[in-house]
Amino acid sequence: MNVKKYICEDSIDGIFTAVYDAWASKADMETIRIETRMDSNFELFTEYINVSTDYSKSEKVANTIKKKLGQDCYMDICHAALSGSDSKANAVFRFIRFGLLSDIKMPIMNALGKKEVSTIFELSRNVYNEAHHLLGFIRFKELHNGVLFSEIEPKNNILTLIASHFADRLSKENWMIHDKKRQLFIIHKKEKAWLLISGEQLNLDETYNVSEYEMKFQSLWKEFCHNISIKERENKKLQQQNLPLRFQKDMVEFN
Amino acid sequence: MTEIMLGKGMSISEKLEILSDAAKYDVACTSSGVDRNNNNRGMGNSIAAGICHSFSADGRCISLLKILFTNECIFDCKYCINRSSNDVKRASFTPDEVCNLTMEFYKRNYIEGLFLSSGILYTPNYTMELLYQTLYQLRNIHHFMGYIHVKAIPGADSRLIEKTGYLADRMSINLELPTANSLKLLAPHKNRNTILKPMRQIQQTHAMNKNELIIYKNTPKFVPAGQSTQMIIGATPESDYQIMSVAQSLYDKFALKRVFYSAFVQVNEDKNLPALPGGPPLLREHRLYQADWLLRFYGFQASELLSEEKPNFNVLLDPKCDWALRHLEIYPIEVNKADYYTLLRVPGIGNKSAGRIVKARKMGPLSFDDLKKMGVVLKRSLYFITCNGKMLYPTKIDEDYITRNLLNTHEKLPEGIRNEITYKQMSLFDDMKFQTENLKGMML
């Protein structure tokens, strides 16, 4: 049996469009796979189908999920779709199909005994956890022009999940978070709504341009982090277990 | 007056060095319990789940800017680095300096808020007034909406404590030591009464305020995240049973949100203090925290875990395993039938996985594979459960046998504590019941 691979854009809308197309094809669902990346080696007996993102299709899928599976479940699917894992698109597809066809009378996310559900649960939890970590681990530095600037390199595409937290917290500030891995930016202008921006280039010189006032607080903070540790209890392994190295490299107190 | 003069000449960096160093022995650093949006009212908000911003070299979470307002102190508590008879560098912040540090750190997302404690300068009231001034400025001049945890100073006027409580999210008064006798011995200027009185006051005001909030939505909130306290472990001879009983009554009678346990770190030499050649009793502290969770989230009573006859926790097994081993008559239980509270008591099943099991089994019977996916630690729970009438593999329900196997699973202790137990030695006692008493007996 030939396998059909739908190759879509790496975004919630891209994946939902592919789900729509795959479903509409009425092919044997067992032979369908959805991927967000083209294989580096083409496989034998595989038909590759390129999906171009179509917002009306993706909205239809989103509405169906919300109506049939509920809002909470929709959130879990969105979280999973933001994952950095390669198999997420296919997992989302399998899960939506499982949810729509099953006759379970309870919130579908509770059915953790099912592989389709536990996979999405795992992906969603992983994305949610990273987003929650970064609420704390993000560090802003104040640039000369008063903008608070932060750079991160998360495993998952979590920018949109943390934006509203900072928009509320720092509502009276101009700030910006840069996802180095995906070249994405969240931009927040004082007392305005936040924006997600992609495809822009960063003026690196500007980001190094900080005041002495900024340097003073960076060194005060480093000093504080150093002092607050109890020497008799020192435990670097525990520190690293709680705060993995991949986060540390973007944090001022570890540089 | 001289102390203040000394403090005036210092840079903010020097002050921070002294006053953060002096605050580090306070364990509470949680920023949890309050959900508050900013809604364009200033800077900051608060998330009930709490957020960790960093971790210090000892592996503890840094969530709040934890500082003392001053390390001047008129009290002479034997265990405290800032006791009046110690010759240490003294410094005091001004309210403006604390506000500036808090706001600038917060803006850069270094911290979730402020944890403000203090030594006692001149009198308890004088100090409490300074703390109040600082909080007042933060909330009303800088419009700071983040988290504030403030210490109530024992012996301060109740009106001052109340005023401060309306500006803070959490207030705490340290119990310091589990019994009144120990307190008398090690903290001669404090007494049980000056600690319990404000604790009761905060509890009552908090409860009254809650009722008012039901009627008047816009009433100012009094310590919305409740109060907590802290006890020093290992400086005095109390047993674990005494400590847990105190904790239990604090939860039951004073409605505390958290009781923190702080392994005694020897910073002073004093004839009344124990020498601890092995360093702070971290494993004991760890066992107390485990038991504390059992009290708060697993429906256990202190009297179930320990008794006069068995007053200390088994150092080798966590309190839940220990309890289960003493109640083997009820095991194994059937995972697909047992109620939530019975599941909670099984070693290897936590409150999250117990919740998931109860929900997921409505779909159909669960297998061991399913349990694993839900986060159940099978290597610990397998002796206590059956799935559809079968155990994971045939095993004896025998205390010694299970104890031996559980010890072989190498419980995941926080790094560093692990070194204190040498598993190699254990094989010598293979057929013993692994109780501390026995171990002690062997060593004598």
Could you characterize the architecture of this molecule?
The complex is a heterodimer of chains A (255) and B (444). By secondary structure, chain A is α/β, with parallel strands linked by helices. Helix content of chain A is 47%, strand content 14%. Chain A contains 10 helices and 8 strands. Chain A has helices at 12-24, 55-69, 71-81, 88-101, 115-137, 159-169, 204-208, 212-227, 236-242, 245-248; strands at residues 3-7, 32-35, 46-50, 141-142, 148-152, 175-179, 184-188, 194-198. Chain A has a 5-stranded mixed sheet, with helices on one face. A 3-stranded parallel sheet of chain A has the order 2-1-3. In chain A, helix 6 links the parallel strand 5 (148-152) and strand 6. Chain A is elongated and about 65 Å long. Chain B is of the alpha/beta class and 444 residues long. Chain B is 39% helix and 9% strand. Chain B has 18 helices and 10 strands. In chain B, the strands form 3 sheets. Chain B has a 6-stranded parallel sheet. Chain B is globular, with a radius of gyration of 24 Å. Chains A and B meet through helix 5, strand 4, helix 6, helix 8 and helix 9 of A and helix 2, strand 1, strand 2, helix 3 and helix 13 of B.
